[in-house]
Amino acid sequence: MIQIPKGCKDMLPSEAYLWQTVEGIARETAKLYGFKEIRTPVFEHTELFSRGVGDTSDIVTKEMYTFLDKGDRSITLRPEGTAGVARAFLSNGLQGGVMPFKAYYLISAFRYERPQAGRLREFHQFGAELYGSAQPEADAEVILLANRFLNSLGVGEAVHLELNSIGCPACRAKYAEALRAYFRPHLDKLCADCKVRFEKNPMRLLDCKEEVCKEISAGAPSILDSLCDDCRAHFEAVKKLLDGKVAYTVNPRIVRGLDYYSRTVFEFTSSALGAQSTVLGGGRYDGLLEQLGAKPTPAVGFAAGLERLLMVMSAVDVPTAEQLPDAYIAGMDAPSRAYALSLAEELRGEGLLVETDLMDRSVKAQFKYAGKLNFPVVVTIGEEELREGAAEVRNMFASTSERVKFGEIAQYIKECLRR
Ligand code: HAM
Fold first, then answer.
1. CB atoms < 10 A from the CB of 216, how many?
2. Is the CB of 81 under 6 A from ligand 1?
3. Could you tell me if 304 and 346 lie in one domain?
4. What average pLDDT score do residues 150-154 get?
């Protein structure tokens, strides 16, 4: 038997309603803030991610699914959604359009990571991006969208917002020096990756999962002490706008795993998850669009991992219910079954979820199937019913049965369901 590739998961019909619930709430919430859906390709030119996501991030250096296509182009399966949206904004000439530009997406993304609970090689994201505003109100609005989404899902109590500012390139250059001064005496004890990070992007040192590096970095200086006046004022304004609307903790160690961020960064984490505790992450990235060739365009956004959200929902027992079917039509013999098929089509035309026998089962077995799937109404048709033009309709809730004329069955079922 061929196995599913490592780090991937099938979404089975029995759990489809859960995914659809999350996706439905994502769409509804995004709509409330004026965000419209965008769909971009699953793969892009590799350069988009190496330039956009950044060549000091783990994602670009270790985790991308990159291959040469038949035309010898280097292609990469998207490891995230932000870079593709930025590329689409530029390639479709949307820079000249109405600002702010607001878009959301529901996508699959691919990272060659070591799989564990909450960490997959193919995973799914709900993300939102806002371009054209450098105002703290834009940061606040995106965070409030994320917060409303999590609350509407029923996991508001199980997650917590952690907020930080990583400043502008000037603040980060100052911070990089402060970090180098701090880490230099410990350089020989750091892991091989961190030795490279020390040279290329010392802020990444704070993100290392190796115990030794974690211990050393515990006493590292805080980015908040390196912020310039403008970045500090921006961060204060964002916090003020959020005060009273969403609870948060300032965590100066949130640096995010992608290189494009500037100023505000945030993560919603959950103690209901294990090591992979971040369900949603995002921030401002004022330099990305310009780096990809646009005129300077400030931007802010987030993405939530759907698999991790579903794990939190299940851990805190968020009540979710699959939509029940409406009616099952049982046929006693071949002509009745043929009629059942026509009647089912007619009822579906009335918007009812109807099934009928496709397995040549006995009536008894058909009833058993209807019971197993919890059909609230069961319509039975036999020779006599066909002759009379009326079927036996059983309301399973009330345990009552009635003869109902074929032409009146749709109405009758709707009344049963209303009760
Ligand atoms: P990210 O933090 O890399 O940010 O990913 C966002 C979320 O995707 C994570 O918080 C997590 O829930 C989920 N996620 C990431 N990797 C995996 C994985 N291997 N398995 C399962 N879930 C995963 C971004 O992707 C940015 N593009 C977010 C953003 C949008 N920033 C601004 N705009």
1. 20
2. yes
3. no
4. 97
Q: How far apart are CA 229 and CA 252, in angstroms?
A: 17
Overall domain count for the chain: 2
* Tokens at 236, concatenated: 């204060």
Ligand 1 center from residue 43 Cα (angstroms): 17
- CA end-to-end span of the chain: 48
Q: How confident is the model at residue 243 (pLDDT cuts 50, 70, 90)?
A: very high
Q: Classify 289 as helix, strand or coil.
A: helix
- Structural domain includes residue 206: no
Same domain, 139 and 267: yes
CATH number of 383's domain: 3.40.50.800
User: Which atom of ligand 1 is the closest one to the Cα of 256?
Assistant: 2
- The per-residue pLDDT for range 89-106, each reduced to its tens digit, is 999 999 999 999 999 999
Closest CA to 152 of 244, 28, 243, 302: 28
Kindly give the number of the ligand 1 atom that is closest to the alpha carbon of 79.
25
Distance from the alpha carbon of residue 71 to the mean position of ligand 1, in angstroms:
31
Beta-sheet strands, E only, within 235-277: 248-250, 264-269
127-131, 230-234, 258-262: which range is least confident on average? 258-262
Q: How far is Cα 120 from Cα 111, in angstroms, rounded to an integer?
A: 8
Give the domain CATH number at 136. Answer: 3.30.930.10
Choosing from 129, 278, 289 the residue with most ligand 1 atoms within 8 A of its CB, the one to mutate for a pocket test is: 278
Rounded to whole angstroms, the Cα distance separating 230 from 167 reads 9
The residue type found at 59 is I
- Whose C-alpha lies nearest to ligand 1, atom 11? 305
Give the tens place of pLDDT for each residue, 34-69.
999 999 999 999 999 999 888 878 888 899 999 999
* Domain region containing 381: 327-418
% of the chain with per-residue pLDDT over 70 = 100
Rounded to an integer, the average pLDDT of 322-340 is 95
- Read off the pLDDT band of 419 (50, 70, 90): confident
Same domain for 376 and 243?
no
* Ligand 1 closest atom vs CA 125: 8
